[in-house]
Amino acid sequence: MKITQIGQVYQVAFMPNVFPVNCYLVEEEEELTLVDAAMPFSVKGILEAASKIGKPITRIVLTHAHGDHIGALDGLKKALPQAIVHISRRDGKLLAGNQELEAGEPNQPIKGAVPKPGAIQTKPDVYLEDGDRVGSLQAVAAPGHTPGMMAFLDIRSRALIAGDAFQVRGGFAVSGVVKFWFPFPAMATWSKEVSLASAVKLRALKPSLIAVGHGQMIVQPQALLDKAVDEASKNFQIEIASI
Questions:
Q1: What is the largest distance, in Å, between two alpha-carbon atoms of the chain?
Q2: Which of 166, 179, 158, 149 shows the shortest CA–CA distance to 228?
């Protein structure tokens, strides 16, 4: 486990040199918000990271319902029964094991490690919609990797925790663009077209920092965001102007 702090965001990275899986602790005045829950074995490390910071985790926020982002959820909820669990309304269905598409969604199969029905015991307390606030974080709908993925923008610093909307490991890219040295986020992406539209939306936020599920945090990422969006547009053969 490796802990990296930039401002009020702490990246807690598991297996950072092999298959990095990240979650984040966002520091508030008196408490912490945990964004994502990494792998099932990550419970102890997450709790240790919070202890080092010296503040309690009072909220658990999930970007999406893939196994490497929800793995420790049940263990954490058992250890932190008071923590309020948040997820988008849409990916709340995936968390419960329901992979049926909703009306109007692209008719493409949902990919990645989605839990089977009943596999996750924890029930969300709050179902988020675009624009909702969780402490200092603003929820930003960013579907594509999954139908209900969300990113979270810290309104104090404009740090953006973007789940798997982008990857850093293996090369900075929009979710769905295959990077040879780390193809896994692309392999688990539901809709490339929707993913690109979300990437354009997140780029327009002009974040001061981007923090994703796989790879290091990047300060002042605008040039990389521009390049990644252009690459995805060419890769997917979609004109950005048409989005």
A1: 48
A2: 166
